[in-house]
Design goal:
Elements (H helix, E strand, L loop, with lengths): L1 H25 L9 E4 L4 E5 L3 H7 L6 E5 L5 E2 L12 E5 L5 E2 L12 E3 L21 E3 L21 E3 L7 E2 L12 E3 L7 E2 L12 E3 L10 H4 L7 E3 L7 E2 L13 E3 L7 E2 L12 E3 L19 E3 L5 E2 L5 H10 L7 E3 L26 H25 L3 E2 L8 E2 L11 E2 L4 E10 L4 E8 L7 E7 L9 E2 L5 E4 L7 E8 L7 E2 L5 E6 L6 H41 L4 H13 L1
Parallel strand pairs: 2-3, 3-5, 4-6, 5-7, 7-8, 8-9, 9-11, 10-12, 11-13, 13-14, 14-16, 15-17, 16-18, 18-19, 20-21, 24-31
Antiparallel strand pairs: 1-2, 22-23, 25-26, 26-29, 27-30, 28-29, 30-32
Length: 577
């Protein structure tokens, strides 16, 4: 055993020495340029206040992440990154970049992230992005882009997310995004877009999310949106769209689940505008000029309704909304601005008797309006009940009938006597010094919510807490005292018992735990313990040797500044060459 252990340690030592030699040879390969901060382990280089020409001469060829800020590089010339074949992320931010020559990104084949934020780009062209065949995320935020020609992003076949926020776009022309069949997210927020061509979004066959917030749109761009049948999320917030009616949105947006039309100065809202969204889950109408809103009972999938910061008039027309807020237990957001007596109060906290409509002289408007509101509220409640009946149903092996997932047993003042289930044939089927195993049969109505196993000690030794492994027709009581007599009672908890009086006495049986295991079982247990002890000793010895080897490797790893990844990178580069 000792000889084997020595041989194993020799092998581990030789391995460690070999790794050390590799580390010594590779640690000198990653040179960090001046005025840069580098991380060799992650092959990351962060540079400040450098010119492109100087920096490219000094960059290590194995760099995978390059970040340049506050640099001086007005133009990215052809072949600028041709030697950085392992580059995966590129940041050029706040560096005065004005143009990108054709072929500037040729070389890196695994470049996934390109950040060109806070520069001076005024336009983009297709030849700028040649070579970016693998890029998935492109950030062009905070430039001066005022025009994008058709097909400008065609080379970006794998692009997943495109950010063109905080620029100077006023028009989105036709076929601007052609070729981006894999694009999922498109951000055009914080521009000055007032017109979007009917064919602007042509080719976006996989789009899921579009943000057009904070632009100059005066109406919903219905025609271009009609091309986006896969769209899930649409943000039109902070555009001067003052009216929404039943023809505002195209019928093709069947997949839309989130709609944001907040902060638009919206005064006139016809809720029929939202009937084209059968899957809508989130609707935001925050920060508009809405005083009232009609019932939304047709939005059967709605889960989130954002309504805060509107000048709400809390009268009979909002009874339905108060009911909806209470039924869904949502966060209070609707604060009343009128009438004066309800100002600055949350709608959900107001008693129904105060939500009245003012009478109009010479008419029955008050009665008519209130009747209409009550009718709408009744419809909301019916819809809620219908939706509850359509929820997924829970069934257990012991349930006679399925029930809705949100079912709550009704509460009554005087419980009635119900037909309870009966436990029969309760018996002890096996025992040990610390356990008793039971089985029984449940007759008549079967249990719905499960079983309660009650057991008490004859000698006042409480066995509570020993209940475990409870099944519908069996139970194993654990943690019991050896040689002790117990009285065990089994009762059934049913759905009916929640609101009915229980009239059935639990079935009980008296049983005693064994004082000790039989002799043959003790011998088997002893043999098992002996075998386990021998095996455990051998495993412990092997485990100790492994821990020692891992410790040696960890010391070498720390001593050489964590350059395992560099060693692997050199091996990979040599294999490719």
């Amino acid at each position: 055993m000792a000889l084997c252990l020595q041989n194993f340690i020799s092998i581990v030592t030789a391995f460690c020495m070999g790794i050390t030699l590799i580390i010594v040879n590779t640690s000198a390969e990653f040179h960090c340029p001046n005025y840069c901060d580098c991380n060799e382990l992650y092959a990351r280089v962060n540079c400040m206040n450098r010119t492109l020409e100087e920096l490219l001469r000094e960059l290590p060829k194995s760099a995978e992440k390059l970040k340049v800020e506050n640099g001086s590089m007005s133009v990215l010339t052809t072949g600028s990154f041709s030697t950085l074949v392992h580059l995966s992320s590129l940041w050029i931010q706040n560096s005065g970049l004005q143009d990108i020559q054709k072929g500037a990104f040729e070389g890196p084949t695994d470049l996934l992230y390109v950040y060109l934020r806070n520069n001076l780009l005024e336009t983009v062209r297709a030849d700028m992005f040649e070579g970016l065949t693998a890029v998935k995320y492109l950030y062009l935020d905070r430039n001066y882009i005022s025009a994008i020609p058709a097909g400008a992003f065609t080379p970006l076949k794998k692009l997943y997310s495109l950010y063109i926020r905080y620029n100077r776009l006023t028009i989105v022309d036709a076929n601007v995004f052609s070729g981006l069949a894999n694009l999922r997210w498109l951000y055009l927020s914080y521009n000055s877009i007032s017109n979007i061509s009917a064919q602007a979004f042509k080719g976006l066959t996989s789009i899921r999310k579009i943000s057009l917030m904070n632009n100059s749109l005066t109406s919903v761009p219905k025609e271009p949106l009609a091309l986006l049948g896969t769209l899930n999320y649409l943000n039109l917030g902070d555009n001067p769209i003052a009216v929404l009616n039943k023809t505002s949105f195209p019928l093709e947006l069947k997949s839309l689940s989130s709609l944001y039309v907040n902060d638009m100065g919206l005064k006139d809202l016809n809720v029929d505008a939202f009937k084209v969204f059968p899957r809508l889950q989130t609707l935001s109408l925050e920060e508009n000029l809405l005083e009232t809103i009609s019932p939304l009972n047709f939005l059967h999938t709605l889960q989130v309704l954002k309504l805060k910061k509107n000048p709400w008039l809390c009268d009979c027309q909002l009874i339905w909304l108060r009911t909806w807020i209470i039924q869904h237990q949502i966060k209070q957001e609707v604060m009343c601005q009128a009438p004066a007596g309800l100002q600055n109060q949350y709608l959900g906290n107001i008693d129904l008797k105060y939500l009245t409509c003012p009478p109009y002289e010479g008419s029955n408007t008050n009665m008519t309006s209130t009747a209409t509101a009550i009718t709408a509220t009744t419809q909301i409640m019916k819809t809620t009940e219908q939706r509850s009946s359509e929820l997924p149903r829970i069934t257990s092996p012991s349930a006679s009938k399925p029930r809705p997932a949100t079912f709550k047993p009704p509460m009554t003042q005087t419980p009635k006597v119900c037909k309870d289930p009966i436990v029969q044939s309760l018996q002890v089927i096996s025992k040990s010094p610390s356990t008793l195993s039971l089985k029984w049969e449940a007759q008549q109505e079967r249990p719905r919510l499960g079983l309660d196993v009650l057991f008490f000690s004859k000698d006042t030794k409480d066995a509570s807490g020993g209940k475990s492994h409870i099944g519908e027709q069996a139970a194993v009581l654990t943690g019991l005292s050896p040689g002790t007599s117990y009285k065990i009672c089994v009762d059934l908890t049913t759905e009916a018992k929640k609101f009915c009086a229980n009239s059935v006495t639990p079935q009980c049986v008296v049983a005693s735990t064994l004082k000790s295991l039989p002799s043959d079982q003790q011998e088997k247990k002893a043999v098992s313990h002996a075998s386990t002890g021998t095996a455990g000793t051998a495993v412990a010895a092997i485990f100790s040797v492994i821990i020692f080897a891992i410790t040696v490797l960890a010391l070498i790893f720390a001593w050489k500044k964590k350059v395992w990844k560099i060693a692997f990178r050199q091996f990979r580069n040599e294999a490719q060459n």
